[in-house]
């Protein structure tokens, strides 16, 4: 550990990470990445950039580097242009802008290790296109070679981190290559871990294999579970040694989102008093991502377009967080710079799926006070939305120029009432969506009762919390309950079938005291007196009772429930196992696990070529219990 800190101190002392000094005449000129000539990539993507064309950029670098005069050219290493590299890579404040031009750094030993076929399809590419010439693909998707027509940029934004305003943040190690428009929508393609930008602050601009594997798998996995998420395209390993808590090897992840705009994208210009820039960004998002509410007109008594924008973001955020809670997902670092304006899950860091159910679960060991604990996520989401409402409030108050004022404490009464009404709607939106999802997980597909969350879901969660039962296993086990409850009218036989189900839950519980008869009887009682009557009402059974006549319906219902309750989730120990196997050379296992977590996440049995991954649906091994990650990646 001393050796690592020593190397870090040396790096800072030698100014390798950043400098606040202006570039001098002797600074190195920027060497661009050569453009790929590989047949698979020369005409692969047609760029349709809107962000850099329609929104203000960094005035210190007014022209895209690839359009600058060439001072020196080398066929292999690229062209040198009339721009000091320090201007592009050293940390500095960027005012009056939402982005800066950026060029990836070169990475030695780049090799392709993963491709998401589903992600490729989104941008009009194919899985085979990557592997047909994997060396060429590695060069392109590491950033070592440029795709024709690509002019990369890094986003400028701020944010509240752990509740404190952090001022300018921005894409410190992510570079957007461009936007493409396909039949599946508009996608902004971004390289994460591609090198320093003006927003890198004290970071090095790189990503390590460990965190890159986790995000590559998680983004696609959450999408497969029905949770709004950024998407993954490709994963490239490099031979770069990256300093973290200890030296690690590097990686570059290609990820996709319709937009990478965050709450913090609005917060930073507002904090600087630049509400014109806030308006430009809001209008851009309305134009390209919320066109349905942008075109509704501006009636005198109706909410204006900025109020409608805030309302939509509140709704999207509430629905996404409800889905997190339903699948047992803990994000771990819900800073406002990690909150997507589109309500997508982004910036996967120390995330985790709950193993033993604990509503107070903390997945980030950098969060000792539990600000971002599992059961705090809805509250924090609303807190973050209040931060977003502040810069939008001035726009809501003055929807047309000029601004009446730029003080959030001088808003008109109608504006304050609108904002309060919108924000006060979050809890209802969250609760409604959570109840909707949980009804389906409990097999209630036909009817909704007002007390389903409080009278059905909450008691069951209280039981498994007491026992610290594996959450994913418990929800999957529910799929067996309808058939057990409808199997027979003989109480002793029915109790025997229920007891078998409850015994299985007890075996996957960490609180051994809950293997007691008392706890098991409580669970059986829940199934008999709470769940069975509610299920019977949903199915329209006579006398509100399940009988053997309903057995076939119950079996079909159980099968339907399995499409709502995954058998496989990307637990921390599973991700760690993939990481360790990759470190030992089994890099093909990464995409095999990707298939398990996407195509086969809900399957009762894996195909033969993936059978080795069956263990991931089993009990958490002792070494994997309580694994936590940090923000360091």
UniProtKB/TrEMBL annotation:
Record key words, sorted: ATP-binding, Magnesium, Metal-binding, Nucleotide-binding, Nucleotidyltransferase, Transferase
UniProt-listed Pfam families: SelO
Gene Ontology MF: a single term: AMPylase activity
Superkingdom per UniProt: Eukaryota
Entry annotated with the keyword ATP-binding: yes
Cofactor(s) it depends on: Mg(2+)
GO cellular component: mitochondrion
InterPro entries attached to this UniProt entry: Kinase-like_dom_sf, SelO
Transmembrane segments: none
Keyword field contains Magnesium: yes
Family matches, as PANTHER family: PROTEIN ADENYLYLTRANSFERASE SELO, MITOCHONDRIAL
Family to which this protein belongs: Belongs to the SELO family.
Name used for this protein in its record: Selenoprotein O
Organism: Coemansia guatemalensis
